[in-house]
Design a protein that fits this description.
This protein is α/β, with parallel strands linked by helices and 195 residues long. The protein has a single domain, classed as Flavodoxin domain (Rossmann fold, 3-Layer(aba) Sandwich). It has 7 helices and 6 strands. Strands 1, 2, 3, 4, 5 and 6 form a 6-stranded parallel β-sheet that branches. It binds flavin mononucleotide. The site of flavin mononucleotide has 18 residues, from helix 1.
Length: 195
């Protein structure tokens, strides 16, 4: 069982990454092999809509996204972690999602299967979201995007395991939210344990 966590926060060791670390610790406690990717350490272009992937099912840009593609294809479980910026995902996270247009093309234009080994565990996706405010609709935009992202990469969205944390703004503020840290750990554990 391979669980990858992708952080889209531009702030290293901020609230999002702290929660992601807890989730990956939970997955590891359940026996999974875990890997973390922090997007602000990568140079990743947005999608340029060249549509090369409509022919090949792969992206021809060639940058640090190649490491993320490789991880996404290997992963059994994917945890997307992002702060809310302007009611949506960060630009770092949105860039990799848009670059997964090649998987959308593979599925809906070329009508081919997502590259997976035979008998691999089911693919599932989860989300950790953090925002500074308390708005009821704070995560709606992010969750809508993730619904279509998980569909493109053939991962079942585990909305029951999403960890959505409101009212956390300053760096380190999450440390005082023991409930959220515990929820993230449990979410990661259950994600890795479920069939
Ligand atoms: C550019 C920018 C836009 C933001 N937009 C929102 C927003 O729309 N709603 C909200 O509740 N918080 C917003 N925030 C606050 C962040 O979501 C919050 O500070 C979060 O804890 C940051 O997580 P991090 O420490 O992982 O970077 C914004 C912050 C920045 C820098």
């Amino acid at each position: 069982m391979i669980v990858i966590g992708i952080s889209g926060s531009p702030r290293r060791d901020g609230n999002t990454e702290t929660l992601l670390d807890r989730a990956l610790a939970g997955a590891e406690a359940a026996g999974a092999n875990v890997e973390k990717f922090v997007l602000c350490d990568y140079e990743i272009s947005g999608c340029i809509e060249c549509n090369d992937c409509f022919e090949s099912g792969t992206c021809t840009i060639g940058d640090d996204m190649d490491a993320i593609y490789e991880a996404i294809e290997r992963a059994d479980r994917i945890v997307i972690a992002s702060p809310i910026f302007f009611m949506g995902l960060t630009s770092q996270m949105k860039a990799i999602i848009d670059r997964c247009q090649c998987y959308w093309a593979l599925k809906y234009i070329l009508k081919e299967k997502f590259p997976r080994e035979e008998n691999a565990p089911s693919r599932q996706g989860s989300f950790i979201g953090v925002g500074g405010t308390h708005g009821e609709n704070l995560f709606d935009g992010a969750m809508k995007t993730l619904k279509y992202f998980f569909d493109a990469i053939e991962a079942k969205p585990r909305e029951d395991l999403y960890v959505l944390v409101r009212g956390v703004d300053d760096k380190g503020e999450i440390e005082a939210r023991k409930d959220a840290l515990e929820d993230a750990f449990e979410s990661g554990r259950k994600l890795a344990e479920s069939a």
